[in-house]
Each structure stands twice: as C-alpha cells, then as structure tokens.
Amino acid sequence: MTVEAPMPMSYFDLGGQGLIGLFQRLPIACMLVHAENYKVLAINEAFRRLFGWSDQQVVGHPSAELSLWVTLNQWEMLCGAMSCQGRLDQSELELRCSDDSLRSCLIYAEPVEINGEACRLLMVHDISDRVASEKALKRSENKFAALFRGAPDPCMLFEKRTAKIADVNRSFTEVFGYEPTEVVGKTAPELGFWRFPEKREAVIAKLMREGRLRNEPIDFFARDGRVLHCEVSSNFVMVGEERCTLSTLKDVSERKRIEARIKHQAYHDALTGLPNRLLLSDRMRQHLALGERHNLTCALLFFDLDHFKRINDSLGHTCGDAVLHEVGRRLRAHVRKADTVARLGGDEFVVLLAGLSGNAEQVAEQVRRTAMQLLDAVASPVCIEGHSLQLGCSVGVALAGEHGDTAEELLKHADTALYGVKASGRNSIAFFEPQMQVAVSQRLLLESELRRALEEQEFRLFYQPQLDTRARQIIGAEALLRWQHPQKGLVGPGVFMHVLEESGMILQTGQWVLQEAVRFVAHLLDRGCVSADTFSISINISPRQFRQRDFVAQVAAAVHGQSIPPQCLKLEITEGIVIDNVDDTVDKMHELRVMGVRFAIDDFGTGYSSLSYLKRLPVDLLKIDQSFIRDCAGEGSDAEIVRAIISMARSLKLDLIAEGVETAEQFAFLQQEDCHVYQGYYFSPAVAPEAFCAFLGPLAASERLALP
Ligand SMILES: Nc1nc2c(ncn2[C@@H]2O[C@@H]3COP(=O)(O)O[C@H]4[C@@H](O)[C@H](n5cnc6c(=O)[nH]c(N)nc65)O[C@@H]4COP(=O)(O)O[C@H]3[C@H]2O)c(=O)[nH]1
C-alpha cells in the first residue's frame, strides 16, 4: 500500500468549521471516502479509538488498500452496493484493528457532498459485544439442547408462562412411553400423569418459594398405567426469550422396589411372609404405648406345633414347609386385621391380639376364646402332598400388664407358658404363671449339666441283649446311652435325649457312642466272648448325626480304628431319617453297606410311610416297634399289624427283631408267628458292660433261653 500524505482538512474547511467539529465528535466511528476514487478523506475520533488506526495509516489511502478489510471482497462488496444504490444499508462484517484483532461491525454508508465533491460517509457501528454474547448464547443453547436430548434421565421443559410442556427428551419417551407429539403443548393436568394430582399445587408452591426442587419424591403414571416412583429436580432456565421450568424425573421405581424388598426381608419371615420377631417386637411396643393412652391392652399367644419334627423327619422338609405355610394362613384367617401373626422360626408362631378392653377377667376370657378358636383352626386336618395330617399345637399366653409390661417380658413369659403346656401334655392352652419359670430354668440347667457331663465323661453305654431262640444264641446287643449323674445316679435317655438333640450336643455324644460301642465289640471279640460270624452291636443313629457330611468317614474311622469286622456293627436308623432325604440316605447306606456295615430300621411301623422306600434301601433288619408288641397278644389290631410286618419282612428277605418283649404271652405269640429274635425285659434290660459279659457266659445264656 502506498502511503500518501493525508488529505488536507480543507475539505471540511469548505464545509465550514461546524461540520468538522461535528464529524470529529460523532460517537459513531466514521470514515469519509471520495465517491469516485474512493480515497479516504477523513476518519473521526471514534474510528481511531475503535480500530486503533491513525490518520497517517488511513487518510489519503485508497480504501481498497486499507488493512481494515479482512478480505478484499469485503470492500468490493461494499463498493458494489454503494455504486448501485448510492448508499449502503446496514451490512454486517468483521473489520481488522491495528493490533490485528477483529471487531464485528455494522456498516452504513450515506452519500454526502462536500465542497461540491461527491463523497460517501461510512458509519461503523461496533456490535462485537452483542455478536459475542449471541454466539455464546447460541453455544450454550446448543449445549443445553444436547444435554437435554441426551440426558439419561427423563427431562421435561415447561413454559413458565403457560405451564405447557415445551419439550421432552428421548429418555422421557422411553420411560413414560409418550411420544413428544403426544405431550408437547399440553399441561401436566391435561396429560393426567400425576398419580396424586392433589399434591401438585404444594410442589409448585415449593418450587416458586425456593426457586428449585431437589429430588422431590413424586409418583407418576406411565402411558400404559404403570406407577413410576420418581425423584423430581426442577429449576428455571431461559430458553431463547422464554422462561421455562426444566424438570428431571429420575425413575427410582427399581431402587424403591429393592429397598422395599430388603425392608420386607428384614421384617418378615421368608417362608410364610409373616412378620418376624423384629416386626412383632416393634408392633408390640406400639400397641403397648397406644394401649396406655387409650386404656386398651393386648395379649401374646405363643404357638408351637406338637410333634412337628416328626412330620419334618418322616415326610421331608418340603412337606414341613407346606404345613408351616398352612398354619400361618389359618392363624391369619382367624384374627382381626389389627392383630399380628408372626413366625419366629421353626414351628413357632406368635399371635399378638391388640386393642383388648374390659377388666382383667373379661380380657382373659376373650383371649382364651380366641386361643381356642385358633387351636381348632390349626387342628382341622390338612392335606399336603397326598398326606392327610392332623396337627396339634400348644399355646402359651401372656397378658400385657398382668404378665409383663415390655415386649421382651411378654414374649419371654408367653414362651414360658408354652413350655408349661408342653410339660403337662400338649394340644392345649396355658396362661403364664410365675412358677412356670422354674421349669424353664430346669431345662436350661439340664442343658448346662449335660455340657458338663460331656466334658467330665459321665456318659456310659449299657447293652441290651438280642436273642435268637431258635439258634439258642445271643446274636447281638443294642447299645443304649446312660448318664452316670454324680448326685442323681444312673439317668436314662428319656430324661435328656431331647435336650441333646435340640442343643446339637447329640453330634458329639453320638460320635462317642459309636467309638465306645465299637471298642466294646473289639473287647468281646478279643476275649473270645462272641463270634464275629454271629454277633453284632446295634447303635442308635439320630437324624442330625446321620446327616453330617462326614458321617460315613466317622463310621469307617471307628471300625478301622478298632479293627473289628464291619459286619459286627449295625446302625439303627428310623424311617424319619430315610424320608427326610432319600437320596442322601441311600448313598450313605450304600457306601457303608459296601464296607460291610449293616442296617436296621428302628421303630418300624410307626412312621408315615413304611413300605415305598424299603426296596431301595440296603437294609438287613426290621425292628418291630414295642408299641405293637405291647398288645400283640391281645384282641386288638396290633396282632394283625405284627403279622403283616412279619410277612412283609419275610417276602423282602429281611431279618426281624421284636423289640420290647416283656411277657410270656407276647413271647408265645411271636414264636407262633414264626418270629424268633427278641429284645426285651422278658430276657434282660440293658445292662452295664461287665454284666453283659457275664450274661454272655454260655451257661447263663442257655439257662436264660431255657426259661420260657
Ligand atoms: N418298656 C420296655 N422298654 C424296653 C424293653 N426292652 C427294652 N426297652 C427300652 O426300649 C428302648 C429301646 O431303644 P430305642 O427304641 O432305640 O429308643 C431309644 C433311643 O431312641 C434313644 N437312645 C438311647 N441311646 C441312644 C444313643 O446312644 N443314641 C441315640 N441317638 N439315641 C439313643 O433313647 C430311647 C430310649 O432308650 P432307653 O430308655 O434305653 O430305652 C430302650 C430300652 O431300654 C421292654 O421290654 N419294655
């Protein structure tokens, strides 16, 4: 660009002093150019300030050559417009400053005549700030739109003015099922998707008051009618010129469902779905507090199914579970809505009767009546898996106020009362009495004494002979547990066996019995008292003991440890063990049978199903239960049962022992029915090992056998 000397100010002089002054003072940047040669005639102060160009750099130069233009096109375009229309309506372009920065400008041009010369007055309006903020706005609008559309949670945009839905995002459509066309332009009430529309006003008031909402729990209906639990966050945004409410509706239904399930699990019994101990205690506390205020009282009924263990053992856990389910259902069906039926575990149910009124006698009578109804409800026969079962139950009752003031106390006392019912025969009701506490204490004392007995090795094994009268021989003995109590003397298993089983101590005790019995056989064999071909020791195996994973290994270790022939050991199991888990039982029995150990089914005939599984089991011997032997010589049906068992054993080629033979009549009957192996007081009770050895003496045996 050739730099020429600036044009003399005479141009303006010609126009008069007032014009130049005005030109220079104009607040808008101006440039005066010649209309023909387009040389710059003058620039004003605002121009210099805006672009930083000096008079020397601009004035006198051909306009086209100014560094002001970012491209040559710009000037050519302006020129073209000016020569066409003689003027230039606003044209928006970017112009360069002396420091190389760019400014967004609107340019206008007006023809002016100065000193008779046609000129163009270019006025430049700086709109850089506006353009920058428009750009920023555009950018943020684009960003907002992108965020809105792509947000993972459902979003809605409402016009604040009209409350109409302006837009919804993709996630909204996915979760709520509405297409944008179905909702845009409608208000929320028109859409009818609030589950509780009456809450809407309060929520809007909160939004107005606080300027925003944060995780407000609101339930909506999806398009298909499903209820969606949402957490709504809202705030105000400007979208273009419009003030809007942006709401994010986070669907927390799944989380709520999981939370509800976890809460339900924490407070309910998994099998029956009834409240558990935790929820029961909570409800009791509530009722006790309410009762005080409204002069009402409540009662706690502790239920325990009689002989449930037998059902579980003989028919299996699935059947046991179904029974528990049915009992829970029946109890629930016979109490009022305000009452609570809870299951504490096992076969223990608790009913909380709430809102009772009247004097102490009236309340007690009311509770007794309800308890009787519940007892009857449980007692009506139930058919499960083809088995018709008659259930019985015992109920212990504690009345609030009279028998305790706290949930814990009432529960404890109802449990104690239940213990009282069980101790005095089952299938009835008992209210708590302070002396019942004594029985409970005794049970606890017995358990701790048994633990001590185990440690102090106070258990003994007694042996009851088993005789074959045809072979005139003692063919075995049943090992029976005794407790040599330091003060009470010899105690039989009837007193403590249930405590050993309930407490789990039977596992340790059972293992001791196994080892001790095997040691005794080894001793007898060593001393030549018995022959391995004809003699075996029977031991009772409890269900818990048999179910142990390593039961087979325990037996093997005992047999090998004493090097006895395995056939000298006979394991007595009950039908209950078998039915509880037939596959596991069959597997274990086979493993032991392969080893040489033999099996007897104890108490045969008393279980729920006797025959169906017998063929699958490697059983050697059936023991006819003593309850059938007791009356077998009489007129009743027991004789028929014994005959049936004998003929069945014969057809299945199983050995047979009649257990509990006490009288000559029983003995005669059995002999007549061709049953020749016996165990019973008629021959001998269980005796200490030394006495048994003496009994084995050939003389003693034959004398005894000669008795009948
Ligand atoms: N009325 C009468 N009873 C007779 C007669 N002959 C034998 N008995 C008794 O009948 C029971 C037979 O044992 P069980 O049926 O296996 O019944 C046993 C068995 O189920 C259990 N038991 C005993 N010892 C053990 C053991 O070491 N382990 C396990 N798991 N249970 C045992 O305790 C139950 C009772 O044992 P005991 O009191 O020793 O009672 C024994 C025995 O003394 C008789 O002629 N008349």
TrEMBL record:
Keyword flag Transferase: yes
Organism: Pseudomonas jilinensis
Protein name as catalogued: cyclic-guanylate-specific phosphodiesterase
Gene3D superfamilies per UniProt: 3.30.70.270, EAL domain, PAS domain
E.C. number(s) listed in UniProt: 3.1.4.52
Listed PANTHER family: BIOFILM ARCHITECTURE MAINTENANCE PROTEIN MBAA (PTHR44757:SF2), DIGUANYLATE CYCLASE DGCP (PTHR44757)
Location in or out of the cell: Cell inner membrane
Catalytic activity: 3',3'-c-di-GMP + H2O = 5'-phosphoguanylyl(3'->5')guanosine + H(+)
GO CC aspect terms: plasma membrane
Residues annotated as domain GGDEF: 296-434
Domain EAL, residue spans: 443-700
Domain PAS: 140-187
Alphabetical list of NCBIfam families matching this protein: GGDEF, sensory_box
Known cofactor(s): Mg(2+)
A biological process term (GO) from this entry: cellular response to nitric oxide
InterPro entries reported in the protein's UniProt record: Biofilm_reg_signaling, EAL_dom, EAL_sf, GGDEF_dom, Nucleotide_cyclase, PAC, PAS, PAS-like_dom_sf
Pfam families registered for this protein in UniProt: EAL, GGDEF, PAS_9
